[in-house]
UniProtKB/TrEMBL annotation:
Name of protein: MMPL family transporter
Compartment(s) where it occurs, according to its Swiss-Prot or TrEMBL record: Cell membrane
Residue ranges of coiled coil: none
Membrane topology: Multi-pass membrane protein
InterPro entries, A to Z: MMPL_dom, Mycobact_MmpL, SSD
Pfam families associated with the record: MMPL
Keyword Transmembrane: yes
Key words, A-Z: Cell membrane, Membrane, Transmembrane, Transmembrane helix
Naturally occurring in which organism (per UniProt): Nocardiopsis tropica
Start and end residues of each SSD domain: 239-330
Classification via SUPFAM superfamilies: Multidrug efflux transporter AcrB transmembrane domain
Biased segments, Basic and acidic residues type: 781-794
Family per record: Belongs to the resistance-nodulation-cell division (RND) (TC 2.A.6) family. MmpL subfamily.
Statement: the UniProt record of this protein carries the keyword Flavoprotein: no
Length: 794
């Protein structure tokens, strides 16, 4: 397979680039309108849950029970002033005549104290805007433009769920543009520093642009068939740039190394595709498997990231394996052109330094030898640091992100802040109870008993029907007859009003939902509302997590086995990846749930984190950790095949990939931190959290934990039973053998010192098995790499 790609890119590079250009132009045209197709809704509800199905019924039969638009009316003279009341009633009446509005309720129509602020200077007009999120959004935007602002003695601000979603969509769009303007120049500067060449530095960005443009086109098509969240665009940019840089770093560095060794450009490209290209294939498969696990969850928020993530990974890999080799073949030695440091040295007369690759080699050589000499110490300290960093996650609290993820200066956020501070929380936090079979006269006592049972629950202020209070505390007052309930097709509903101190979607409100559902009643009921949606989302996620984890772990075990031929390395790699995530989850709780650093980062802590976000962050971070693991293990396997010595393979593998992994982690962290500079808390949490996971994985895990543990596991690291070894050799032959270089002798004289490694099979480069007998002595071939390996053993 890799040989076929090599033939295509080295023999017809201009045709490959022309076809890629046509595809990119078509993707630009198709994907230009993708933002209009994406949904700004939270997407964190299970569409088949009790709360969602009951919500659909309420939306159809009792639309004014679920207001999604709020007008906050403020007047210096007070809301009870005659002129203020006249103007406000006019606003409410005008709103009721809007085509998209199904129901309007205001303080001036009902006199309800819950719709009036404590100081009497503000009051609410609440309404329901019909239609889907995509239909309601533009309608609310038009209403906000017409009704917001000054109206004589009134100042009107627009809030409510739909207004919040509109603001989230516009804020994310602005933040993504800003993050691109921040990330691209910084990334280019880092790549120029890493490569020492402007030409080499531009290539990863070209691959990233191709991947992002192609993914936008794919999302445009996908959004025509299913719901796709606007948040998925953040992942498209982060992974599109990050992985393209990772893959291009690997490919370009190998290409430059082959050129430096004397190969002509087509030969250098062929070796690059067969070695680094093989790593790219496995990395893309590993990351895609981790991201695809989100398709198992019913929440379209998570599924959207799977659509975007798998697509951008596949396109980044495809561009790296097809477009990039064609460019490298055409560029040849010009890939090293335009070194700004060389121009600076000419002006200053400074001496020619070591190449970036040679300088990095020496640093990684010293570090690796130190870690492997003190392997138990470094392994123990690394484990302790990672476990301690993850301890805060033990006190995690889950909820659903609300308006407080928006900046404090956003109008819809300000409206909701005023309601929380100056109004009863029941104005927006009611728990809806849908009664599917309202009792007749003979069964009226059942509804009375049920309302009384609900009112006696902890944290309940009162239970009401749409026409007034039904039950207040344990005593019934102002009881509404059963036939006064709004009924439609044998449906009716009650509203459970939490105590004023209970926030809408807090852990307390979730406990209240569970308590309501636990009440014993002969009536057929369903519970809905924001808090119920959170409870159902948690249940849906908890139900699918075992299957998702199993799918991710099994796919990783299989992929690492296919990559390395070992049965031990897959188990270790999954363990390493899991440990690399502990710091991320601990930091998420310590920073975003507990509110530490909320001032410098500029967000409002709520005391909980979004239920779906840890799943998303796990899949992304686990996949990226696997990416770096594949880089390292692939090169270690190649070196082990070449030299047949375990310690040498670990050291050389880390030396050859340490600089690549570090540079890739730095550039990806820059992209993620640019995404994390968003003013929307969920996006900020995603960017900062995954950036931390990437940095920890590239430093603590890959630099210290992996070499120290592999030093202790010894040559058992590469163990596999003979049938699996034969299968792996056949698989390698199909894909394209990863070790493109011939097996080298172990030392200057061709005899390997006694290091505990198995002797090498000169045909396959792998350690000989007892059944095969000892390998024949290799022919001595003095070489710079031979001397290097002998020096490793010293």
């Amino acid at each position: 397979m890799l040989d076929a790609l090599t033939g295509l890119t080295t023999r017809r590079p201009w045709w490959v680039l022309f076809a890629a250009l046509l595809a990119v132009v078509g993707a630009v045209v198709l994907g230009s309108g993708v933002a209009d197709r994406l949904r700004a809704g939270q997407g964190t509800e299970d569409p088949l849950s009790e709360s969602a199905l009951a919500g659909d019924v309420l939306e159809e039969h009792f639309p004014d029970s679920r207001p999604n638009l709020i007008l906050l009316v403020e007047a210096e003279a007070g809301v009870d002033d005659r002129e203020v009341a006249r103007r406000a009633l006019g606003l409410a009446e005008g709103l009721a005549y809007e085509d998209a509005v199904a129901g309007v309720t205001s303080y001036w129509q009902t006199g309800s104290e819950e719709l009036k602020s404590d100081d009497g200077s503000r009051a609410l007009i609440v309404a329901h805007v019909s239609g889907t999120e995509d239909e309601a959004g533009p309608a609310v935007a038009a209403i906000a433009e017409a009704y917001g602002g000054e109206h004589g003695p009134l100042t009107v601000s627009v809030g409510g769920q739909t207004a919040v979603l509109n603001d989230i969509e516009s804020t994310i769009a602005e933040d993504l543009l800003r993050s691109e303007l921040i990330a691209l120049p910084l990334t280019l500067l880092i790549l120029v520093w890493v490569y020492g060449s402007v030409v080499s530095a531009v290539l990863p960005l070209l691959v990233g642009v191709v991947a992002i443009i192609g993914t936008n086109a794919a999302l445009y098509v996908i959004a025509g068939f299913t719901d796709v969240s606007v948040f998925a665009q953040s992942l498209t940019i982060a992974l599109g740039l990050g992985l393209s840089i990772d893959y291009a770093l690997l490919m370009v560095r190998r290409f430059r190394a082959e050129l430096a060794a004397g190969a002509d450009p087509p030969t250098a490209t062929a070796v690059t595709v067969r070695t680094a290209g093989r790593t790219v294939v496995f990395s893309a498969l590993a990351i895609s498997a981790a991201l695809a696990a989100m398709l198992l969850f019913p929440l379209y928020f998570l599924r959207s990231f799977a659509y975007a993530g798998v697509t951008v990974v596949a396109l980044a890999a495809l561009a790296s394996l097809v477009v990039l080799p064609a460019l490298l073949t055409l560029l040849g030695h010009r890939v090293n052109s335009l070194d700004p440091r060389r121009l600076l040295r000419r002006r200053t007369g400074a001496a020619e330094p070591l190449s970036p690759e040679d300088a990095a080699d020496r640093r990684w050589q010293r570090l690796t030898r130190l870690v492997m000499r003190r392997a138990p110490l470094f392994a123990s300290v690394s484990l302790i640091v990672l476990v301690v960093a993850g301890l805060p996650f033990l006190r995690v609290e889950f909820g659903m992100a609300d308006d407080r993820q928006l900046p404090a200066e956003t109008e819809s956020r300000q409206v909701m802040d005023v309601i929380r501070d100056d109004f009863s929380s029941t104005a927006t936090g009611a728990v809806d109870v849908l009664v599917h079979s309202p009792p007749q006269d003979t069964d009226a006592a059942a509804l009375d008993a049920y309302a009384s049972a609900l009112s006696s629950l902890d944290d309940v202020d009162e239970v009401r029907s749409p026409l007034g209070v039904y039950s207040d505390g344990a005593n019934t007052r102002a009881r509404t007859p059963v036939d006064a309930l709004r009924e439609s097709d044998d449906l009716a509903y009650l509203q459970v009003m939490p105590d004023p101190g209970v926030e809408d979607i807090s852990p307390q409100s979730q406990d209240l939902v569970r308590a309501i559902r636990a009440v014993d009643t002969p009536l057929e009921t369903s519970v809905s509302g924001q808090a119920a949606a959170v409870v159902d989302a948690q249940a849906a996620i908890a139900e699918q997590i075992p299957l998702a984890l199993t799918a991710v772990v099994v796919s990783m075990l299989v992929l690492v086995y296919l990559l390395t031929g070992s049965l031990v390395l897959p188990l270790l790699s999954v363990l390493f990846n899991a440990l690399s995530l502990t710091a991320m989850f601990g930091a998420v709780v310590w920073i975003f749930q507990d509110g530490n650093l909320s001032g410098p980062l500029g967000f409002t802590p709520t005391g909980f984190i979004d239920t779906a976000l840890p799943v998303l962050m796990f899949c992304i971070a686990f996949g990226l950790s696997m990416d770096y693991g594949v880089f390292l293990m692939s090169r270690m396997r190649e070196e082990y095949d070449r030299v047949g010595d375990h310690r040498a393979a670990v050291e050389l593998g880390l030396r050859r990939t340490g600089g690549i992994i570090t540079a890739a982690a730095v550039t990806l962290a820059v992209v993620l931190l640019a995404i994390g500079a968003s003013r929307v808390t969920n996006t900020m949490m995603l960017g900062w959290g995954v950036a931390l996971a990437v940095v920890v994985d590239a430093t603590v895990v890959r630099c210290f934990l992996v070499p120290s543990v592999l030093r202790m596991t010894g040559r058992a690291t590469w163990w596999a039973p003979e049938p699996l070894r034969r299968f792996h050799r056949a698989f390698d032959a199909t894909l394209g053998e990863g070790a493109a270089e011939p097996v080298r002798p172990h030392g200057p004289g061709g005899d390997a010192p006694d290091t505990g490694a198995a002797p090498s099979d000169t045909t396959t480069g792998r350690p000989a098995t007892p059944e095969e007998g000892p390998a024949p002595a290799p022919v001595a071939e003095p070489d710079r790499k031979n001397t290097e390996v002998a020096h490793v053993r010293d």
